[in-house]
Design a protein that fits this description.
This protein is α/β, with parallel strands linked by helices. It contains 21 helices and 27 strands. The strands form seven sheets. Strands 1, 2, 3, 4, 8, 13 and 14 form a seven-stranded parallel β-sheet that branches. Strands 18, 19, 20, 21, 24 and 27 form a six-stranded antiparallel β-sheet that branches.
Length: about 650
């Protein structure tokens, strides 16, 4: 196969501290769509996805659930495999960062860079984002020393660390990007990365001593390799970097990454700099897509609006969900998910346009020509001329990952075919024997428009394309066909298969009524599940003394899996408090936090430590088990310590 017709595409490997949501489904579907398209253009394709299974957040999540990190990642990684199956993804490999092949590759690369002098040991002091597990340079911080990606407060940390000599290779990367303007897409992300690189990149910390769940630094096992170094290497591991040089030479020169915009700097700065140091080419393209909101609001567990792809597919079907994600917003922009918008797409685009074209054409060929596609001397028409232009426009859009533009172009063609029916009025032609050849011409053109439309939508809706071809009497899988081999008129003489409705219309009013009833039922069930304490008088409530305090120090209590020993400052005095929140927060996340403290509880000894007070938290529970904990904090951060809460 032509060396230039190879295409290696990756999703980011998904972090397994939580279950899959629409964001994961979005990236996987986009990669699957471009993979299927490239195969239909004659490319040899390698499509990789997988799971990122090391790091502090996974260690904390496992402790919160009372299991080992390995048990947690073994369990949750399966949900991402299930997501691939649910989405009908055509990935060629699924990598886990806990696999032996990956651990060996990471350690080999780390050792190689130490030998080159590109990794060295030093001491790191700086602002650290615990949830994102990364140090943040001061010039990149958000307001009030917050993480620019997640917005959470940063913590000052100092530790011995190995460093990657990133600054050494920045000029080479800038030069590469200046001569490869589509290496980072879309353009806004390219500009962001170039600005960041030209602002200066410090050497990167690539190990941790405060973490145990990770890959040990070879020869210095008190250090664990930084989770982002570990995770990024997966792309070369799966391509055969360590174990299969022939495979690596086949695929790596043609690698493309697709990522969310929140991890663009790791992929467009850290990773290419590592690759240059390793002596291999940087990715051909890195595309950063946007985020999804839900009905105009940010997705969060607290709002209970996280979109579960498994539930959506169960209710509306897989292909409508895939179509909606690829069509609703320009790829690269943020998008808003709403079930009402999804239903609208099903009714208008899928049922009215595509489904209607299939139903009308199938019925007329069945009625007027006994279910056999007629032949004619010359099948060239306005539709056939338009098809050439459509194929070219779709190709340009797909090469730029403009999935929505590609689908708009396809639907223009489908719309034109529907209009062709209205203009030619086959039902009138069928009544006039002298118009038999004209009727044959019209029916053949409509059949060919459908045959091509099914091919065009195949990368996005593979099951639907097969259902269309089956009704057209074609037994082959359209996703295995080649666009370049399509010839207008080749469908003449085919015998139709049985008709079926592709997408039944959804009655909007009935749908709204059903949703409202379901919402009321869920609210009633949630209310019934709330356990209330006995009513108390206002005088009884006044006996509870609550005051504003600040956590100044957090220590682990030996032999306790749940408790932290906290030193808290009330302004007028300092106290020691034991709190069973170890599974939900790291010490770095707690120190410096302003809290609400119940101050008049009787002191009690816990694990040998006298506790004098109780921190107030809010918890979200699922199936009776605490799932998430949030500290109650005053909105006004400047309120004096010791202030009474009433």
């Amino acid at each position: 196969m032509n060396n230039e017709k190879r295409f290696y595409i990756t999703t980011p490997i998904y972090y397994v501290n939580d279950i899959p949501h629409i964001g994961h489904a979005y990236t996987t579907t986009a990669c699957d769509t471009i993979s299927r398209y490239k195969r239909m253009k004659g490319y040899d394709v390698f499509f990789l996805t997988g799971t990122d299974e090391h790091g502090q957040k996974i260690q904390a999540a496992a402790e919160a659930k009372g299991e080992t990190p390995q048990q947690l990642v073994d369990r949750i990684h399966q949900t991402f495999r299930d997501l691939c199956k649910l989405l009908n993804a055509s990935n060629d490999d699924f990598i886990r960062t806990t696999e032996d092949r990956h651990i060996r590759a990471v350690q080999a690369i780390f050792s190689k860079l130490i030998e080159k002098g590109d990794i060295y040991k030093g001491t790191y002091s700086g602002y650290y984002c615990v949830p994102d597990e990364t140090y943040v340079p001061e010039n990149a911080m958000g307001p009030n020393k917050t993480c620019p990606d997640c917005g959470r407060p940063l913590t000052i940390m100092e530790e011995e660390s190995y460093f990657f000599r990133a600054s050494k290779y920045v000029p080479q990367l800038i030069e590469y990007y200046e001569t490869h303007l589509k290496a980072v897409m879309p353009e806004t992300r390219y500009n962001e990365i170039m600005s960041f690189l030209k602002g200066g990149v410090r050497d990167q910390s690539v190990s941790r001593t405060t973490l145990k769940w990770g890959i040990p630094v070879p020869g210095d096992e008190k250090h664990v390799i930084y989770v982002w170094f570990d995770a990024l290497v997966n792309y070369v591991t799966a391509a055969g970097y360590l174990d299969d040089p022939e495979k690596f030479a086949r695929w790596w020169p043609h690698v493309r990454h697709m990522v969310g915009k929140d991890i663009i700097r790791f992929h467009c700065v850290t990773w290419p700099l590592l690759l240059i140091a390793m002596g291999v080419n940087v990715p051909v393209e890195i595309f950063a897509h946007g985020w999804w909101t839900v009905d105009g609001e940010k997705m969060s567990k607290t709002r209970k609006n996280v979109v579960d792809p498994f539930k959506i597919v169960k209710e509306y079907g897989l292909d409508p969900f895939r179509y909606f994600m690829m069509r609703e917003v320009p790829f690269g922009n943020d998008g808003d998910f709403s079930e009402l918008a999804l239903v609208g797409r099903i009714n208008s685009d899928l049922a009215n346009d595509l489904g209607n074209l299939l139903n009308r054409t199938h019925r007329m060929i069945q009625s007027y020509r006994g279910g056999v596609v007629p032949k004619c001397t010359d099948a060239k028409s306005e539709l056939s001329a338009m098809s050439v232009n459509v194929l070219e426009r779709v190709d340009r859009a797909m090469n730029d990952y403009a999935f929505d533009e590609a689908l708009k172009t396809i639907w223009e063609f489908i719309g034109r075919a529907n209009k062709f029916i209205d203009e030619t009025m086959p039902w009138k032609l069928a009544k006039d024997e002298s118009q038999a050849e004209r009727l044959d011409f019209v029916l053949l053109n409509l059949y060919e428009a459908l045959r091509l439309s099914a091919m065009l939508v195949a990368p996005v809706m593979p099951e639907t394309s097969q259902r269309i071809w089956k009704q057209l009497g074609i037994q082959e899988d359209p996703t295995k066909s080649q666009y370049d081999a399509f010839t207008w008129g080749d469908g003449a003489g085919m015998t139709l298969g049985e008709s079926e409705v592709l997408f039944p219309r959804i009655d909007i009013e009935e749908w709204k009524k059903s949703k409202e009833e379901k919402k009321l039922q869920e609210e009633a069930a949630a209310q019934a599940a709330i356990e209330h304490e006995e009513e108390i008088s206002i005088d009884a409530f006044k006996t509870v003394e609550m005051r504003v305090a600040r956590i100044t120090k957090c220590e682990e209590i030996p032999k306790s899996k749940k408790l932290y020993k906290l030193e808290v400052d009330l302004g007028y005095e300092k106290r020691t408090v034991c709190s069973g929140i170890k599974a939900f927060f790291t010490p770095e996340e707690l120190e410096g936090r302003t809290i609400i403290l119940v101050t008049n509880l009787k002191p009690v000894k816990l694990c040998g430590v006298e506790s004098n007070g109780m921190i107030l938290c809010a918890s979200v529970k699922k199936d009776g088990v605490s799932e998430q904990l949030t500290l109650l904090t005053p909105e006004d951060k400047d309120i004096p310590l010791g202030s009474r809460v009433s």
